[in-house]
Design a protein that fits this description.
The complex is a heterodimer of chains A (445) and B (56).
Chain A lengths: L10 H4 L3 H22 L1 H10 L9 H5 L6 H7 L18 E6 L9 E5 H17 L7 E4 L10 H10 L2 E4 L5 H11 L3 E4 L1 H14 L11 E4 L8 H11 L2 E3 L1 E4 L3 E5 L7 E4 L4 E6 L14 E7 L10 E7 L14 E3 L4 E2 L4 E3 L2 E3 L1 H8 L5 E12 L2 E10 L7 H16 L4 E6 L13 E3 L5
Parallel strand pairs in A: 3-4, 3-5, 5-6, 6-7, 18-21, 19-20
Antiparallel strand pairs in A: 1-2, 8-9, 9-10, 10-14, 11-12, 12-13, 13-15, 16-17, 18-19
Helix pairs in contact in A: 2-3, 6-7, 9-10, 11-12
Chain B lengths: L1 H23 L5 H21 L6
Helix pairs in contact in B: 1-2
Chain lengths: 445, 56
């Protein structure tokens, strides 16, 4: 078997017997928590206050007693010196080579310091992802993202280089120019958010009279939104480009921790050699070990040293998958990817509602466009939900039948009734990066 | 598997020792020092893949 036919980036760690993997995670957790405790004022004070000394960690039970870090704590710690990383920093400032930041959508951005070793680690995480998804040195990858302060696909770029792929940076170009460049240089793969991938296909058809399925894109890796793990969205993405579409999950403060492999068996693997993922029951706070029970992810990046991430309360809602993946990796899978965020899942009329459930319905109905908008507000004391959708050109005369199907499916999948509004194709907002399709207006009342 | 891992691990250790010896000579040589900083980070990735997971 040639090197390019090898299915694993690292066969030794990706197929490590599970017990050995867990023992390794335990050793690494103790090491990174001790490092953080000894080198960051934030972790020292935080653990001292909780009566925890990481050197005493012996078991996973001990790990569960280590207090969780929340995003707000990171912001507070960064109000101190050294600017801008504050008490989170574990290395001298001159060892920091990479600056990134979170988007700041939930408040002040978190500034992320990485050393060169951390940056190598980022690209190593991504190299596992890309190799598992079938990227090889023969690929020419187009990256249509704004190379800027957000981590986005930066590490994917470095990982693709590490693997030996040819990378075409599509930074400061508009969507039409990017499409023309893909065609000109015959790129065969790309990476972007699901929203942008769908938007590119629409632009190709409507603005350039170009058929995206004929551009030769064979493989697309998505991130930033859960769409590529939502079956109806994945189906639309694959149909729009005639390409295989893969999901991945990562975050600025955490790293690239999860990925869908080439087997695409209905979930994403956790890179358990580089991360410790724990799933916490949202109500009881107990750690969920068994498959099939959703909870909130608490995650540790086991090797990130500049600004460590130890038991970070990510708010991502996930569940362990029951079935092993046919790919042979021993790294566990999370079923259906990241299914939502604890702070996105909201109660409407007393019913828990996840925006991704609405997306699954809308994009599963032929005749509806990719875009939609959900607005929750109140009439008096009663919650209301409005769903705006677009009819695809040529389907205008089917509005009544589509409306009936949509109502039924929404009731079935979300247990809620909606006020539906239909718009002509192209009327709802389009998004270049992360979409904001869910608007909860109840607090403004 | 164990024999392969042991052999790879031992070669990585030798590589690391060489890099560390060169680093000790790099105090006045930015081109040596800063390139070695990158080499050491790459060696760390080799350790994460082939050494650390197999330590007792």
């Amino acid at each position: 078997m040639s090197i390019n036919e090898q299915p694993y980036w690292n066969a030794f760690t990706e197929t490590l017997p599970f017990e050995q993997l867990r023992a390794y995670q335990l050793r690494k957790f103790k090491k990174i928590a001790t490092w953080a405790y000894q080198n960051s004022k934030f972790y020292k004070e935080f653990y001292d206050k909780a009566g925890i000394n990481p050197k005493d960690i012996r078991t996973f039970e001990d790990i569960r007693r280590v207090p969780k870090v929340e995003k707000g704590m990171l912001r507070d710690a960064q109000r101190k010196d050294p600017f801008p990383y504050g008490d989170l920093l574990c290395v001298p400032l001159e060892e920091v080579t990479e600056y990134r930041q979170t988007s700041g959508t939930t408040g002040q951005p978190v500034y992320q310091a990485d050393t060169w070793q951390d940056w190598e680690w980022w690209s190593e995480c991504w190299a596992h992802i890309l190799w598992a998804q079938g990227y090889r040195p023969t690929d020419r990858i187009f990256l249509p993202f704004g190379y800027n302060v957000f981590v986005a696909f930066w590490a994917a770029h470095y990982a693709a280089e590490k693997i030996g792929c040819e990378i075409v940076p599509g930074g400061v170009l508009d969507t039409q120019a990017r499409l023309l460049k893909i065609k000109e240089i015959k790129a065969n793969a790309m990476m972007a958010t699901p929203t942008y991938i769908l938007g590119m296909a629409e632009t190709a058809k409507t603005k350039l009279n170009m058929d995206p399925t004929q551009l030769g894109i064979q493989r697309i890796t998505c991130a930033g939104e859960p769409g590529a793990s939502i079956p109806s969205t994945k189906k639309r993405l694959e149909a729009a480009w005639n390409a295989k579409v893969f999901d991945h999950a990562g975050a600025t403060e955490i790293g690239a921790w999860s990925f869908e492999c080439a087997a695409q068996s209905g979930g994403m693997h956790v890179n358990e050699a580089f991360f410790l993922v724990e799933i916490e029951d949202v109500d009881t706070g107990e750690i969920i070990e068994e498959p099939g029970h959703r909870g909130k992810m608490v995650i540790t990046a086991l090797d990130r040293i500049g600004q460590p991430c130890v038991r970070f309360d990510s708010k991502d809602i996930i569940e362990w998958s029951e079935d092993p993946c046919p790919c042979g990796r021993t790294w566990r899978m999370i079923k259906g990817g990241v299914v939502g965020r604890a702070d996105d899942i909201t109660k409407v009329k007393g019913v828990l509602l996840s925006p991704s459930a609405i997306e699954e319905v809308v994009r599963g109905i032929e005749g509806l466009g990719d875009e939609y908008e959900v607005i929750v507000d109140k009439l008096g004391d009663v919650d209301r939900i409005k769903l705006k959708v677009e009819l695809l050109p040529g389907h205008e005369d089917q509005q009544k039948s589509i409306e009936a199907i949509l109502k039924d499916q929404l009731r079935l999948k979300t247990n809620l009734g909606y006020r539906l509004e239909f718009y002509d194709f192209g009327r709802l907002p389009r998004y270049d990066v992360k979409a904001r399709r869910f608007k909860d207006m109840r607090e403004s009342h | 598997m164990k024999a392969t891992i042991d052999k790879i691990s031992s070669e990585i250790e030798a590589l690391k020792l060489n890099a560390e010896r060169l680093k000790a000579m790099s105090e006045d040589l930015p081109a040596l020092n800063r390139n070695l900083m990158r080499v050491m980070a790459s060696i760390k990735m080799l350790e994460l893949n082939f050494v650390d997971p197999f330590k007792p």
